[in-house]
């Protein structure tokens, strides 16, 4: 009450605002909270349910019509303030950055890798009955190799209960806790190194990993159902090798080249983005792990036969992330047909194609350093982490899942569920001081309802694993790294077209620290604040 405007009351206050010292009966407030208590003669159970219904009404009043379309799926979101007016050079990855692929590609990768397991690794032929399951897995999950567990972990290294799977079936929460020594916490040394590969845990960070996670779960499901014993390490390695073969041996490239209309999305928008940047005197470059022939055909499809005229330089088969850290590989030049040349590279020429190389030679030969460079990629580790932390480039993350998640967030069901969940959490925090038997029963009912709401909102995104950005309330491990390794993030490169000014400045929203939280909208529903400016408040995110 000490920070509340003079003369105002929280719902449920029994004392007059002009008589703040009026005595109230009952238990003392918990530390940090001034807690209103039941009116004279009211039992605590009745009082708690009155507060509950009062909060429900307040939540309804807090969500005026139109509040459910606040977020734009095509917007660019800022983690760090960045002015495009300061950016002189734009760099791009190719796969899932310039070239966005249809989900049909995931089925093809799954089926081919499954057949490799059967035909080359001599896995049971019964696996052929398994097909790709769209929407089973999400990006950013961790896999515990020794325990055969695929799971979602939050930014504090805790497993989100209800999101641990062995094969295609969920593992009970009690078993998960037992497996990790009576806790949901995964020790830091087990988690991962800088690139998401720990001694026993693997993090799946790129979009191509969706079919790999589904195949891994399908094979384990088959082995468990048929009582087949297996070595967890060998199984994981075999599946990783089969998936790698699909990429390394060029099988995937051939599918895409054969039917680009079916597999490549938003090609016309990519040309518009690149052309506008060039027209505003920006320099462009491409660094990709894909081979030249594949990139050349894709860019001709999206941009036109003269696509190389837009770029100051193109680097293929770069071997990221080693490209950013290993000084040993020199650049090699390719001719127009993609054949290797043997001359030593002393300069990087506009319109030429280069293979391999390393970032240190790139910086030396171009002089493109620091915050005047903005590089876009989809893989937080392989594309962005080194560039931001070690070299000071500005970075943009391409997160295709963002579009779908924002459309879900904009629904009335999600908005009402989340706001009521926040209100109910506030009630539980403020009313936990009531410890008589009847009050405890009320609080248990509220906790059960809160858990049901949390499960409901999780299932809106993905029934198995929920949102890629959040556990029930904490950021995910993926989300924390997205914030750490990218200045801005968006669903696709084409989002740049939504901003007419190429000198646009992106400002991050000031999100609350916990000690700042009472100043923010989500705290209004706990009943400790009221405001006459609800229409203005809905524009704050």
TrEMBL record:
Record-annotated active site: 93 (nucleophile), 95 (proton donor)
Residue ranges, annotated region (Disordered): 1-41
Binding residue positions for Mg(2+): 93, 378
Keyword annotations from UniProtKB, A to Z: Hydrolase, Magnesium, Metal-binding
Cofactor: how and how many bound: Binds 1 Mg(2+) ion per subunit.
A Pfam short name: 5_nucleotid
Coiled coil: none
Positions bound to GMP: 95
GO molecular function, one term: 5'-nucleotidase activity
Cofactor(s) needed for function: Mg(2+)
CDD domains on file: HAD_cN-II
PANTHER family: 5'-NUCLEOTIDASE DOMAIN-CONTAINING, 5'-NUCLEOTIDASE DOMAIN-CONTAINING PROTEIN 2
Similarity remark: Belongs to the 5'(3')-deoxyribonucleotidase family.
Protein name, UniProt field: 5'-nucleotidase domain-containing protein 2
Species per Swiss-Prot/TrEMBL record: Cuculus canorus
């Amino acid at each position: 009450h000490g920070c509340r405007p003079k003369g105002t009351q929280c719902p449920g206050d029994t004392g007059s605002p002009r008589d703040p010292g009026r005595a109230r009966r009952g238990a003392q407030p918990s530390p940090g909270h001034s807690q209103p208590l039941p009116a004279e003669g009211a039992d605590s159970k009745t009082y708690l349910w009155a507060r509950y219904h009062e909060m429900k009404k307040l939540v309804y009043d807090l969500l005026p019509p139109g509040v459910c379309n606040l977020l734009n799926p095509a917007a660019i979101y800022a983690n760090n303030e960045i002015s495009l007016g300061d950016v002189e050079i734009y760099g791009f990855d190719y796969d899932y950055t310039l070239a966005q692929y249809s989900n049909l590609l995931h089925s093809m990768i799954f089926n081919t890798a499954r057949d490799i397991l059967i035909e080359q690794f001599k896995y049971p032929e019964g696996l052929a009955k398994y097909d790709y399951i769209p929407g089973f897995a999400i990006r950013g999950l961790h896999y515990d190799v020794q325990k055969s567990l695929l799971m979602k972990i939050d930014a504090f290294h805790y497993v989100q209960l209800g999101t641990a799977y062995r094969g295609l079936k969920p593992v009970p929460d009690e078993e998960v806790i037992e497996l990790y020594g009576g806790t949901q916490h995964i020790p830091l040394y087990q988690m991962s190194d800088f690139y998401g590969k720990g001694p026993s845990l693997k993090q799946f960070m790129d979009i191509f990993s969706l079919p790999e996670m589904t195949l891994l779960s399908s094979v384990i499901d088959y082995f468990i159902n048929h009582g087949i014993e297996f070595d967890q390490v060998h199984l994981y390695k075999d599946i990783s090798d089969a998936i790698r073969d699909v990429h390394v041996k060029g099988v995937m490239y051939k599918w895409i080249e054969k039917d680009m209309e079916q597999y490549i999305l938003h090609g016309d928008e990519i040309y518009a983005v690149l052309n506008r940047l060039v027209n505003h005197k920006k320099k462009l470059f491409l660094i990709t792990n894909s081979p030249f022939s594949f990139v050349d055909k894709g860019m001709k499809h999206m941009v036109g036969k003269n696509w190389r005229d837009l770029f100051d330089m193109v680097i293929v088969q770069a071997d990221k992330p080693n490209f950013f850290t290993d000084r040993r590989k020199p650049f090699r030049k390719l001719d127009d047909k993609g054949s290797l040349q043997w001359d030593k590279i002393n300069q990087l020429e506009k319109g030429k194609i280069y293979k391999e190389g390393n970032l240190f030679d790139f910086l030396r030969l171009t002089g493109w350093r620091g915050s005047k460079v903005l590089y876009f990629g989809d893989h937080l580790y392989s594309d962005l982490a080194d560039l931001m932390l070690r070299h000071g480039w500005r970075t943009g993350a391409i997160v295709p899942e963002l579009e779908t998640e924002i459309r879900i967030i904009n629904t009335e069901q999600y908005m009402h569920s989340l706001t009521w969940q926040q209100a109910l959490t506030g009630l539980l925090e403020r009313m936990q001081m009531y410890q008589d038997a009847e009050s405890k029963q009320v609080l248990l009912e509220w906790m059960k309802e809160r858990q049901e709401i949390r499960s409901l909102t999780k299932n809106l995104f993905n029934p198995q694993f929920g949102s890629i950005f959040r556990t029930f309330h904490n950021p995910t491990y993926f989300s924390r790294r997205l914030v750490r390794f990218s200045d801005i993030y968006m669903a696709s490169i084409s989002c740049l077209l939504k901003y007419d000014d190429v000198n646009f400045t992106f400002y991050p929203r000031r999100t609350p620290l916990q000690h700042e939280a009472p100043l923010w909208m989500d705290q209004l529903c706990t009943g400790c604040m009221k405001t006459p400016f609800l229409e203005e408040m809905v524009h704050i995110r």
